[in-house]
Design a protein that fits this description.
Length: 175
């Protein structure tokens, strides 16, 4: 089952849990309200059903580790910059652990621990970021509709005016 919690706005080390004191858990209902979908599939064959239902026709795999990702520290810093995408971000965690942080409707951070078997779908236009845990290892399957675009738009007035952000804000955050 997904583990998620609200976190402070300022973090010293992104690889730490960064829980509030006292901790404030976040629920699947709270994630759903901001458009974040969660599935669990112990075996990867469960991905085919989800891919078919949601129209994902392309996928690849990435291993985020010091041994496999060139310029690891720079890439991890870039992943942790608050940004959005104009497409959904779909990640199935095959192995390892990481944190996806998403903004809720009140602009608070929710941290989602992503473990093996977890599948997260972040909607287009949501501000988010990613960090591995201290073991610095995540093996993820990425799924797409068509070819991936991979363009991150860091939080800015320009990103706020993108059609996907405007639509996300109108359809999700104002509900």
């Amino acid at each position: 089952m997904v583990k998620a919690w609200f976190m402070p706005n300022t973090v010293t080390d992104p690889r730490d849990e960064n829980q509030l004191n006292p901790p404030e858990p976040a629920t699947l209902e709270q994630l759903s309200k901001i458009g974040v979908l969660y599935y669990y599939s112990e075996k990867r064959d469960g991905l085919d059903k989800i891919a078919k239902e949601r129209g994902y026709d392309n996928n690849d795999e990435v291993v985020i580790s010091k041994n496999t990702l060139p310029n690891y520290e720079d890439k991890v810093k870039a992943f942790f910059e608050e940004h959005l995408h104009t497409d959904e971000e779909i990640r199935y965690i095959a192995d390892g652990y990481g944190y996806f942080d998403v903004r809720d409707g009140e602009d608070r951070w929710i941290r989602i621990l992503s473990e093996p078997g977890d599948l997260l779908i972040l909607p287009a236009g949501i501000y988010h970021r990613f960090a591995p845990r201290h073991d610095d290892y995540v093996h993820a399957v990425r799924m797409f509709r068509g070819l991936p675009k991979w363009e991150a738009h860091n939080r800015s007035e320009e990103a706020d005016s993108l059609p996907e952000r405007v639509q996300y804000t109108k359809e999700v955050l104002t509900q």
